[in-house]
Design goal:
7 helices, alpha+beta, 26% helix, seven-stranded antiparallel β-sheet, D-amino Acid Aminotransferase, Chain A, domain 2, nine-stranded mixed β-sheet, 288 residues, 30% strand
């Protein structure tokens, strides 16, 4: 496929649909230098974006965490996403809204006088982890740790928080892995580079407490589904050595959906019945 900068189609930018190849920003855009941008990752199934409004609301929340305001309301963002999908003729797609501080009067750490922009791009995207969706992903353990909430707005979906995700995923891929698992600043199991993590032991589910990383919308959805099935869910701090006693494992995220994990470092997991059941149930839910 062509690079993401060289495709046919339309991208919505600041209220207008523009040609894909013309969706550009100035080199002195503040976000490029200081990571003053937030984004969402969404999936559209059969013409309907799953949890669309919740994503738009979270985009506004993330912007507020970075001390800027998006100049479009949630309703306007919802309409823009619909228009972008229609303009590109897509009913099954990945949807990427992005808000950022642009180029303006300020070019330093401070950027209060610079305009805020919003863009929405959509494209077809299959399984995030390829065939790992069936046989189970293999994860490396990152050398980096998720930071303390006292150091950065950890609950925002902000671009700057993904710097260590990129370096960790590159290191994992170099080892033949699909992704990497982070510990947090205290040493507890946290999340993968772009997905939350769940474990199974003796029919009960354990997942890290989302107190220093993004509480994903897919994570919240899956927890609700498990509880509806009568399965006990423990949201708690998990020590790395506990992974030896877990029997199953999976990742959740808009891109990842529900992806089983077969190995993390030296720990191995089966792609068991509960993992397959929740993956199938999630697939039915998003397409219902």
């Amino acid at each position: 496929m062509a690079g993401y900068d060289d495709r046919d189609g339309k991208i919505w930018m600041d209220g207008k649909l523009v040609d894909w190849r013309s969706a550009n920003v100035h080199i002195l855009t503040h976000a490029m230098h200081y990571a003053s941008s937030v984004f969402e990752g969404e999936r559209c199934y059969n013409g309907k974006i799953f949890k669309s409004r919740e994503h738009s609301e979270r985009l506004h929340y993330s912007a507020s965490c970075l001390d800027f305001e998006i100049p479009f309301s949630v309703d306007e963002i919802e309409a823009a996403k619909k228009a972008t999908l229609e303009a590109n003729g897509l009913t099954d797609a990945y949807v990427r809204p992005l808000a950022w501080r642009g180029a303006g009067e300020d070019m330093g750490v401070s950027s209060a006088r610079n305009p805020v922009h919003l863009a929405i791009a959509v494209w077809g995207w299959g399984n995030y982890y390829g065939d790992a969706k069936m046989k189970g992903a293999k994860l490396d353990i990152s050398k980096w740790k998720r930071p303390s909430p006292e150091t950065i707005p950890v609950h925002a979906k902000a671009a700057g928080l993904y710097m260590i995700c990129t370096t960790s995923k590159h290191a994992a891929e170099a080892k033949g892995c699909s992704d990497a698992l982070f510990m947090d600043y205290r040493g507890y199991v946290a999340e993968a580079t772009g997905a939350n993590i769940f474990f199974v032991k003796d029919g009960e589910v354990h997942t890290p407490l989302a107190d220093c990383f993004l509480n994903g919308l897919t994570r919240q959805t899956v927890i609700g589904m498990l509880k509806e099935k009568g399965i006990t869910v423990h949201e708690r701090h998990i020590m790395p050595e506990e992974m030896e006693g877990f029997q199953q494992c999976w990742l959740t995220g808009t891109a990842a959906e529900v992806t089983p994990v077969g190995q993390i470092g030296t720990y191995n997991f089966e792609v068991g019945a509960l993992t397959r059941d929740i993956a199938e149930s999630y697939e039915k839910l998003v397409r219902s």
